[in-house]
């Protein structure tokens, strides 16, 4: 199901804990719960959805960018390796991802899945559903994305995951509670807006997520979190401006500024309701100066360190 854990490398300034970086911290605390990375090197769904291929290289590029990031002593970070993806077998790969996510959740860890195209999201959700964590609890799915990804299609793709999750939630007798931050009006047809309305999807458009609106974005996020028992955060890097994130499957026409996205991740990462996160659509083949890989790594870092901060007693 999973390959061996990749080798981590990075800058070395010294041997003491004050010099700690991600490449030092990964898997240094076996048996201690923390953030656990799972790679999903897959762009089958992107290709099925007519996007430009290359997202299968995303997990490796994110790890490479993360390696030299400095990280505080309190943060416990693990790498559970990559899920093996073969040929066009998307559904089998999603099933394997689900098992990997469920295993980490049962072990008390916070899984952060590194995609891969946004087809990653359905495998992530399946793992959450199988873990038992949602029994008797209301799940909220918060997506940072330029697209609703609510398409109906004969085969699963990067455009269908949240429609599939809606079906999954109905199957367990739960209400589909889904919100999207960063919707690009020109990138979503009237039919997709109608589907979102029918499914009760809350959303903010990219124009309403610029830096001058950050308090409104925070209010939207806090209200959504207050309405659920467990939270799944999914991030499609095409939510960012193309100048900040050129290496994605479908570059944005406007986007939500990186500063806003990071602040949202910091807010959510620090909330004990966060059960799962994934970061998708990094396409290193189209990146410039590793901009997109580095911002993806910064988002992973923000979630991980915010989660660590919430477990540190006040005053320490």
TrEMBL record:
<protein>
    <recommendedName>
        <fullName>Formimidoylglutamase</fullName>
        <ecNumber>3.5.3.8</ecNumber>
    </recommendedName>
</protein>
<comment type="pathway">
    <text>Amino-acid degradation; L-histidine degradation into L-glutamate; L-glutamate from N-formimidoyl-L-glutamate (hydrolase route): step 1/1.</text>
</comment>
<keyword id="KW-0369">Histidine metabolism</keyword>
<dbReference type="GO" id="GO:0008783">
    <property type="term" value="F:agmatinase activity"/>
</dbReference>
<dbReference type="GO" id="GO:0030145">
    <property type="term" value="F:manganese ion binding"/>
</dbReference>
<dbReference type="GO" id="GO:0050415">
    <property type="term" value="F:formimidoylglutamase activity"/>
</dbReference>
<feature type="binding site">
    <location>
        <position position="236"/>
    </location>
    <ligand>
        <name>Mn(2+) 1</name>
    </ligand>
</feature>
<feature type="binding site">
    <location>
        <position position="238"/>
    </location>
    <ligand>
        <name>Mn(2+) 1</name>
    </ligand>
</feature>
<feature type="binding site">
    <location>
        <position position="238"/>
    </location>
    <ligand>
        <name>Mn(2+) 2</name>
    </ligand>
</feature>
<dbReference type="InterPro" id="IPR023696">
    <property type="entry name" value="Ureohydrolase_dom_sf"/>
</dbReference>
<dbReference type="InterPro" id="IPR005923">
    <property type="entry name" value="HutG"/>
</dbReference>
<feature type="binding site">
    <location>
        <position position="149"/>
    </location>
    <ligand>
        <name>Mn(2+) 1</name>
    </ligand>
</feature>
<feature type="binding site">
    <location>
        <position position="145"/>
    </location>
    <ligand>
        <name>Mn(2+) 1</name>
    </ligand>
</feature>
<feature type="binding site">
    <location>
        <position position="147"/>
    </location>
    <ligand>
        <name>Mn(2+) 2</name>
    </ligand>
</feature>
<dbReference type="InterPro" id="IPR006035">
    <property type="entry name" value="Ureohydrolase"/>
</dbReference>
<dbReference type="GO" id="GO:0019556">
    <property type="term" value="P:L-histidine catabolic process to glutamate and formamide"/>
</dbReference>
<dbReference type="GO" id="GO:0019557">
    <property type="term" value="P:L-histidine catabolic process to glutamate and formate"/>
</dbReference>
<feature type="binding site">
    <location>
        <position position="118"/>
    </location>
    <ligand>
        <name>Mn(2+) 1</name>
    </ligand>
</feature>
<feature type="binding site">
    <location>
        <position position="236"/>
    </location>
    <ligand>
        <name>Mn(2+) 2</name>
    </ligand>
</feature>
<comment type="similarity">
    <text>Belongs to the arginase family.</text>
</comment>
<comment type="function">
    <text>Catalyzes the conversion of N-formimidoyl-L-glutamate to L-glutamate and formamide.</text>
</comment>
<keyword id="KW-0479">Metal-binding</keyword>
<dbReference type="InterPro" id="IPR020855">
    <property type="entry name" value="Ureohydrolase_Mn_BS"/>
</dbReference>
<keyword id="KW-0378">Hydrolase</keyword>
<dbReference type="Pfam" id="PF00491">
    <property type="entry name" value="Arginase"/>
</dbReference>
<dbReference type="GO" id="GO:0033389">
    <property type="term" value="P:putrescine biosynthetic process from arginine, via agmatine"/>
</dbReference>
<feature type="binding site">
    <location>
        <position position="145"/>
    </location>
    <ligand>
        <name>Mn(2+) 2</name>
    </ligand>
</feature>
<feature type="binding site">
    <location>
        <position position="147"/>
    </location>
    <ligand>
        <name>Mn(2+) 1</name>
    </ligand>
</feature>
<keyword id="KW-0464">Manganese</keyword>
């Amino acid at each position: 199901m999973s390959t061996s854990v990749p080798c981590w490398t990075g800058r070395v300034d010294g041997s003491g804990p004050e010099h700690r970086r991600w490449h030092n911290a990964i898997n240094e605390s076996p048996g201690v719960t923390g953030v656990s990375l799972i790679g999903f090197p897959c762009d089958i769904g992107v290709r099925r959805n007519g996007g430009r291929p290359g997202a299968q290289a995303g997990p490796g590029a994110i790890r490479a960018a993360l390696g030299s990031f400095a990280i505080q002593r309190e943060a416990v970070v693990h790498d559970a390796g990559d899920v093996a993806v073969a040929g066009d077998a998307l559904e089998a790969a999603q099933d394997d991802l689900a098992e990997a996510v469920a295993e980490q959740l049962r072990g008390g860890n916070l899984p952060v899945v590194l995609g891969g195209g946004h087809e990653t999201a359905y495998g992530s959700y399946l793992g959450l559903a199988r873990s038992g964590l949602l029994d008797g609890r209301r799940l909220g799915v918060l997506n940072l994305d330029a697209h609703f990804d609510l398409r109906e299609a004969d085969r699963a793709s990067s455009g269908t995951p949240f429609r599939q999750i809606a079906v999954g939630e109905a199957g367990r007798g739960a209400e589909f509670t889904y919100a999207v931050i960063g919707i690009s009006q020109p990138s979503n047809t009237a039919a997709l807006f109608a589907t979102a309305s029918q499914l009760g999807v809350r959303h903010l458009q990219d124009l309403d997520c610029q830096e001058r609106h950050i308090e409104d974005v925070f209010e939207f996020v806090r209200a959504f979190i207050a309405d659920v028992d467990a939270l799944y955060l999914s991030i499609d890097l095409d939510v960012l401006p193309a100048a900040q994130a050129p290496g994605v499957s479908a570059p944005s026409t406007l986007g939500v500024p990186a500063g806003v996205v990071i602040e949202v991740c910091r807010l959510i990462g620090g909330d004990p309701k966060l059960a799962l996160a994934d970061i998708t659509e990094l396409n290193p083949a189209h990146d410039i100066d590793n901009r997109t890989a580095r911002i993806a790594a910064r988002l992973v870092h923000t979630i991980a360190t915010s989660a660590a901060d919430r477990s540190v007693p006040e005053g320490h």
